[in-house]
Amino acid sequence: MSALPDNHGALAIELAGELVWLLPEKALFWPREKMLVIADIHFGKAASFRALGVPVPAGTTSANLAALDRLVARHGARQVLFLGDFLHAKAAHAVSTMAAMQRWRAQQPSLALTLVRGNHDLHAGDPPRWLAIAMADEPMRLGPFAFCHHPDLLATGYLMAGHVHPVYRLRSGWESVLLPCFMADAQRIVLPAFGAFTGGHAVVPAADERLFVTSGDAVVEVPAASRRDGR
Question: Which part of the chain is the Calcineurin-like phosphoesterase domain (predicted)?
Fold first, then answer.
């Protein structure tokens, strides 16, 4: 495993015999397929909260799309695979959210998009057809990988999943900070939530799991010997 200093803080690891990059922006890149893998982007979550009368900031859809644009350009991605929870709820089909996504898609017409349906997608419904997203149910097999939303799904292949929104409490003396993290073992990797308004679930990795935290600038592995109860 090695850091890639010329690749903006990404960390290269091997999974199921394939080289992948863990990206500081809470995504994974599979170079052989030129594929970005994104978990739990939750488009329209803020709009869904505002529809319920909760005063939360606007602009998260634009922030998510801008973050996607940067990663696509930086890594030369030709396709994006979403590991479920693309839309947060039916209210995510708000006019402003859909308009922003339509403008973005018009600027990225050749980018292949695939969505493996997650639990929120079942309630929100599939994205509009004009987004030209290929839809799949979990698990979706490609190469050695089984792409899923739920990490506990029984499937043949090495699982890539989301759903958990994992964050880890990194401690230094009396101070601590919650950081998004990737968790990987011999059977699966769980990605952090990509969305700008998704929250996180504090996790305690098992002894046989590798833990990688991201500060937003770099991905770093936390050795098992230095880990404590992250809650």
Answer: 35-131
